[in-house]
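Comment on the following before class.
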Amino acid sequence: MIEFYHKVVSFWNGDNVPDFELGYWTGTVVALVFLILVVVLRFLIFKRNKKVHEVRIPGEGGSLFVASGAIGDMVKFVGATFEYIEISKVSLRESKYGIVMDINVSYDMHGERFPELANELKTSIRGNLEGQLGIDSIKDINIHDKKITDTKNSRF
């Protein structure tokens, strides 16, 4: 055991160790530290929000779970009542503040002003989610205008 200790101490001090071995071990340690830093920074910088597959509604005697697809279908039905907007995609994700709904829409530029129309759509969606399904856990509704059409008085 003492002999092993002396070998470790002599290696650490650089006694009787070829320069190649010192460079090799130094390079290996530097590479490992760099790799660990890259992995940690990747998770800190590119931290993605978790996708929500269902929304839990607590109740007496158990919980009710509503699938994100069902919520998306309801949002599309609500969006169909708006003449100048077509909803193409609805997704739910978990943020640090709660559940966030992202809605991708196409907007016909011959309709009402988009900000007012988007606010009406948000209000209508939130009212239907709370009234019909009892979901009040969605904190934000974000509307993303992915496409603007130029079709006068026609439905997409």
